[in-house]
Amino acid sequence: MTEVLAPVAGRLLPLSAVPDEVFAGEMVGSGVAIEPSVPADGAEAVVVAPVTGTVLKLHPHAAIILASDGVGVLVHIGIDTVNLNGEGFTLLAAEKATVSAGDPLISFSPSVIRDRGLSAICPVVVMDSQPGSITNLEERDVATGDVIFTV
Predict the structure, then answer these.
(1) Phi-psi region of 69 (alpha: psi -120 to 50; beta: other; left: phi over 0)
(2) Structural contact between residues 83 and 137, judged by C-beta atoms closer than 8 angstroms
(3) Share of residues in the chain with pLDDT > 90 (%)
(4) Ordered alpha helix ranges (H), 7-123
């Protein structure tokens, strides 16, 4: 079993809460979403690796970490944020790097995303998993690094 950690602090929600039919419909895989909180000090939020593994893909708005057991976890920062062309995001890791769960990957400003009229919600998806395979979600506030589900 692989424990998947909250990559960012915020409100844990079902994927159906994501305003994007691909994620909400679990077409990429099953998982959860986190509506990120804005740090009280106005600093940027930091997305951390949800599992220990290799950074398979890293973009300003998304990362995929492949765990040693073959589980791939996608963290997508916001919806349609690819259109920001990296504005408001800073990469803190590199593709092909080995990371431990909790290592920083990307920093971003939820406020910049929301100020552009976009959703800052962050889907956390087990790649290629069956729809509905992540169950027993309890909506709650989570801190970065809290266990949010197991695979």
Answers:
(1) alpha
(2) no
(3) 86
(4) 21-24, 110-115
Place of tokens 């504005």: 87
Question: Full-prediction pTM beyond 0.90?
Answer: yes
Q: What is the mean pLDDT of the chain?
A: 94
> What topology is assigned to 3-130 in CATH?
Glucose Permease (Domain IIA) (2.70.70)
- Does 76 participate in catalysis according to the annotation? yes
Catalytic residue, from 76, 93, 120, 149: name it: 76
Q: Which residues of 7-37 are buried (b: 16+ CB within 10 A; e: fewer)?
A: bbbbebbebebbebeebeebebbbbbbbbbb
Give 35's contacts (C-beta < 8 A, 6+ positions apart). 10, 11, 13, 17, 120, 121, 122
Domain boundaries defined on the chain: 3-130
